[in-house]
Amino acid sequence: MDNLLPLKDAAQQFGVKLDRLRRAAWDGRLMARLVGNQWLVEPEEVARFLRDAGRRPAPAPVSVAKRGDGMARIIAVAVPKGGTGKTTTTLNLGAALAAQGQRVLLVDFDPQGNLTQSLGLRPGDLEHTAYTAIKHFLTSFEPQLERAVLSTPVGVDLVPTSARLNLANDELAVAIQREFVLQKLLAPLVSSYDIILIDTLPYLGVLVVNALVAAQEVLVPLQSEYLATESVALMMDQVQLMRRSGLNPELRVLGILLTMVDQRTVIHREAVEYARRVFGNRVPIFEAMVKRSVRFPESQASHTSILAYDPEGDGARAYRLLAEEVLHGTA
Ligand SMILES: Nc1ncnc2c1ncn2[C@@H]1O[C@H](COP(=O)(O)OP(=O)(O)O)[C@@H](O)[C@H]1O
Ligand SMILES: [Mg+2]
Q: In this protein, which residues make up the domain named AAA (predicted)?
């Protein structure tokens, strides 16, 4: 591993555009290591990539990817950091997509159950949850997730969870094909929905891997205040791993969503510019940007979406625009 080159040098050596190698590194077609903000790559790997690229057609742009076969698009909302707006985004993007006539299923796959609670349910009261479906599957291999599906007042369906989902960590660890359980559970439901959003937990492990196997796309929220670029970079590495390991060769980053942006301060403006510089050339950053607003925790405490709670506000507008971008691509 001591013949690692910075991507810039590799581009020069092979006479190709740096941007091409960067994009390939970010979406996992080129195996490279991210050290700080710099990609390092082995020359043999660049040679392999260029050889293979000559044989395979370039992938279609991510944001306009459509399945068009009556099967739901499955999007995991994921980044290995807490408090970045994953749950808020799952709920409000889901509500905004439903308002556009999409049939939406949300899956609460975080044992904390914040999504479940935000929609007014008490996890302890529920007979059927994501966890009970996993448990049943591990003993019977029957996918019975539909038992757990509930309708909600914000126009989306929900697979709720309880804290018992924590137990699935250990139970899945010894299970056959442990990475594929959520994919198998969702399979009977994909023809009933247009979009399935999976809310994930803030650290990488078997539950997140299950979400990343089930999904075709990953939406990565980046909290602007603390400039959580490191966790976004980690997420990109994980996507790359999913592809290279063969667990999900087609997995793509749909885009990065800037959340909790406070445009009044210089720090936040700089943060946004920095994010565009560091990530913007490599994966799409959504035009939609979610500003910090107390309306979000308020809407969640009222067990509703930002669209219902403050329909004319910036927050509702941002999630409506995000829904447009998810459906039709960024302009
Ligand atoms: N744009 C925002 N402005 C202000 N508060 C927000 C915003 N988005 C989310 N929050 C609040 O921040 C907290 C963490 O958000 P959450 O979506 O639960 O993050 P995660 O799921 O990544 O842990 C929640 O209390 C939520 O209500
Ligand atoms: Mg959460």
A: 73-252
